[in-house]
Amino acid sequence: MRIGITCYPTYGGSGVVATELGIELAQRGHQVHFISYSQPIRLTEPHPNIHFHEVEVSRYPLFEYPPYDLALATRMSEVAEIYNLDLLHVHYAIPHSVSAFLAREMTAFGPGRKRHLPFVTTLHGTDITLVGLDRSYLPITRFSIEKSDGVTAISHYLREKTLQEFEVRNEVRVIPNFVNCDLYRRDIHAARYRAEWAKEGERIVTHLSNFRPVKRVPDVIEVFDRIQKQIPAKLVMIGDGPDRSRAEWMVVEKKLQDRVLFLGKQDEVHEKLPAADLMLMPSTLESFGLAALEAMACEVVPVATNAGGTPELIDHGLDGFLTEVGDIDAMAKYSIEILSDDEKLREMGKMARFKAQSTYCASKIIPMYEDFYREVLERAS
Question: What is the distance between the alpha carbons of residues 344 and 334, in angstroms, rounded to a whole number?
Fold first, then answer.
């Protein structure tokens, strides 16, 4: 198949999933065309089946805010026509599915064109929860979902939230996030980074996110402060965003400068996660919890919040721990408990890896997308 993929190319779960999906599809022989304002951050290696098409937005004095959605629709239509795409797959309803709808209409009704260009919308979370904060987005979001030829959601939680918020008539297919289990695993890099970050006998705790307020990064610092008072440990912070400076000041105030490392944005996350023992994910809400899944594939035990889609991923006490949002004491308690028990830590790490392999490996999830594409194309023909 010839597939056009549009996503936000910056750090964040939706961009990561969309990019990894494109890479996996390309490796399975499909032609993949990324269409976005910049190259996705995880699209680092060339592949003969992967192509990138940049969307350029004209900046006229007339426009206070350049119309990216219109420029994107135009570029989608152009790429679809030039490369004879079979379908578009957009990640996030706003504005990508609206642009895909316009591209479909242009392709169908332009001069000399009589084809239906179907598009699939994958909902990742913020595109739905945004409506809870600003109801003015509800009509356009509902419209874009209902006009999609196929709709997927990354968790049952998000599917139910979508149906509840928008009362859409479409089927919303749950296709969960995934991880490349051959890439995310314990390997030779783990020992190298452990030696670089911590002394022998010290535990390594990590956090991976875009440091937005919903990730509750200050809670990570608070929990780790309690951990390091009981157990020799280092905290490795991976990512960047608006709450990084606040977290850095908290580290200074608590005199943890020699205990906490801020790595910033990292491309080769799969090389660094295996060095950790435990991941902290105290988010207010996760529609799925991709960072936790990546950690689990690397035998890193997640301690996360019991919110959104995360309970679908983590079995409390078996392959990770779940607490209520904001319960720093409980998160620290579970962390100290597991980090103090070598045997249990290894056992839970193995169970976490088993969960990732048995349920969420790319080899299991990518065929679900391929089958869904075929369904959409059959309905559109």
Answer: 12
Nearest to 3 by CA among 55, 76, 98: 76
| Chain region(s) in the chain for CATH 3.40.50.2000 | 2-178+361-380, 188-359
Give residue 175's pLDDT band: very low, low, confident or very high (50, 70, 90).
very high
Which CATH code fits 188-359? Answer: 3.40.50.2000
Crossing angle of helices 156-166 and 126-133, rounded to 10°: 40
Residue-by-residue DSSP string for 215-226: G-HHHHHHHHHH
8-state DSSP, 308:
T
φ, ψ of residue 57 to 5 degrees: the values are: -105, 120
Residue 316 DSSP code? B
Question: What is the rounded distance in angstroms from the CA atom of residue 273 to the CA atom of residue 356?
Answer: 14
Look at residues 157, 148, 104, 103 and name the one whose alpha carbon lies nearest to residue 128.
Answer: 157
**Identity at 288, one-letter amino acid code:** F
CB 128 within 8 A of CB 158: yes
| Predicted model pTM | 0.92
Whether 132 shows a pLDDT value over 60: the answer reads: no
- Tokens (6 digits) for 267: 């491309």
Give me the numbers of helices (H) and strands (E) for the chain, helices first please.
Answer: 15, 13
Task: Dihedral sign for Cα 22, 25, 29, 32, please.
Answer: negative
Say which residue the tokens 């990518």 belong to: 366
2-178+361-380 CATH, one of 3.30.420.10, 3.30.160.100, 3.40.50.2000, 3.40.50.300? 3.40.50.2000
- The mean of the pLDDT values for the chain is 91
What are the structure tokens assigned to 204, written together?
């390594």
Give the whole-angstrom CA distance, residue 374 versus residue 366: 13
